[in-house]
Amino acid sequence: MFTTNAYAMAGGAAQEGGGSGMEGIVMLVIMFAIFYFLLIRPQQKRAKQHKELVGSLKAGDQVVTAGGIHGKVTAVQDTLVTMEIASNVRVKVNRSSIVGTKTDQLEE
User: Fold this and answer.
1) Using one digit for the tens of pLDDT, what is the confidence trace for 54-103?
2) d(Cα 80, Cα 75) in Å, to the nearest integer?
3) How many helices, marked H, and strands, marked E, lie in the chain?
4) Are 63 and 104 in contact (CB under 8 A)?
5) 26 and 42 belong to one structural domain
6) Are residues 51 and 93 in the same domain?
7) Which helix (H) or strand (E) holds 65?
8) Are both 80 and 96 inside the same structural domain?
9) What is the value of pTM for the model shown?
10) Which range marks the domain in which residue 70 is found?
């Protein structure tokens, strides 16, 4: 009795499941599109903005580091930025650790 029910259920599912392969592919494409527009694209946009910020640093800019140090850029080298954080107190930080300028934070 149980075996006939199982075969009947399996046969019915096999007949209806003919188009399920295409539905699965469509669902995967939709999920990838959602991930792209909600996660990947905004991250790429932020990375591009950060690259432009780091590339446009010049002496005299008021900046903020990833560690929260506020200071004024006094010199810019290839990978280092010298910042003055107080009178006659200068520190060197990696260019990539600069996360924003004071004017950026005022605009937000």
Assistant:
1) 999 999 999 999 999 999 999 999 999 999 999 999 999 999 999 999 87
2) 8
3) 4, 5
4) no
5) yes
6) no
7) strand 62-65
8) yes
9) 0.66
10) 58-108
